[in-house]
Amino acid sequence: MTKIADLAKFKREVLEQCIQRQEQQIASLKEAIEAAIESALSESGSSEDSQDSFREQMQQERSMYNNKLAESSELLAGLKRINPNAVFSQIGQGALVVTDKQIFLIAGSIGKITFDSQDIFVISTQSPIYDAIAGLKKGDKYEFRGQHFVITDLT
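Given the sequence above, the corresponding structure tokens read:
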């Protein structure tokens, strides 16, 4: 694992990348919803049954996008609530956790992102790995799925 020179700056930049990613995802979902609406409004078929079937399909698609939009918006709001300058003595929401093998940002269910040639796992407090590390401190050891880890840094 590469040593990160300025961990606080790294954390701020990773959090900003997560926010930008969520904003882009929300913009894409809004575009998809608009496209579904336009498609439903412009459909003209030969029979009323086929139009009804198509409209129902478009309504289901729009509903699916609206649900994803709500989830993405909630995640974005959570990311924006995190104080990027907060320093943690133990692992909790908003912490950047560096182990001897991986880096985690406890911020929401985004998954793996790459920043500055480093893989960072952006996880929520609901994830199984969080259960293994919640409340731990720099220097603590833990086991997850048969692997042993050491927390080498925390901010």
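Helices lie at 7-42, 48-81, 128-133. Try to locate this feature in the token string yourself.
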